[in-house]
Amino acid sequence: MKNPTAFLVAIVIAGLSTYAQCRYVSDREVELLQLSELKRTVVAVRPLPKGVKLDETMFKIEMVPLKWQQPQALEEIDYVLGQITSTPILEGEQVLASKLLRPRDAGLAYFVPSQDRAVAVYMDVTKAVGGHIRPTNYVDVLGTFDFGRGESSDVRTVTLFQNVWVLSVGNDISQVAVRTVAPGETATIEATGLNGNPTVTLSVSPDEAQKLVMAQQVGDLTLSLRSLWETEKDLPLKAATIPSTLGITERVRARRRPVFSVQ
User: Fold this and answer.
1) In total, how many domains does the chain have?
2) 44 burial level (CB within 10 Å; 0-12, 13-18, 19+)
3) Both 139 and 180 in a single domain?
4) How far apart are CA 140 and CA 129, in angstroms?
5) pTM for the complete prediction?
6) Which of 96, 131, 167, 243 counts the most CB atoms within 10 A of its CB?
């Protein structure tokens, strides 16, 4: 062999060229596989601003090449429904879990029906069915008022509102106890009842909200719990007075009952 060094250099160059070619073919094969492997991806069908409650009309499923699917992209519309946008989402944009707000993070406003208002009323357990009221229950709101003058009393109890939806009890807003938000994830809300926060928050119309606040200022409110099997929403009721309650006409002076609370 006249020039062994040149021969060795040629072998090295050939080996490097072969390696580079194999590496290119391998990388190209992976790239083509990623382009050919399609993944279900949730895509917005119209622009969605921040703070929108999401429903099935806002999205569609597109088959997107694996290489083009963004990290945290959701693959099922069920993972999106009922959540809220934390940032704007553009039309045609893949929906990412990082751009959605879980119900437990949205607070009580998430559960207030459209056109309603949430109003909290102070309730110790003796006026809230012994603390047995739960979110999503329906209650009647009773008010006791003294219409008397001077030393005379004229106490009457009337049903102010019937079939009122309970939004929260204390810090418990668990209308949705468990909601799936992504594969393997759940949103949960802890229940605390009336012990730490003696209020019951009701869902009422704006007009009823004014009346409820006024009634709370001038009288004593009590909640009565409705049965889950109640069919009559509004019953004709007369105000309860001392004579009608006791069955006697003599004047009775009203007295304040002690307030009980559970520690």
Assistant:
1) 2
2) buried
3) yes
4) 11
5) 0.60
6) 167
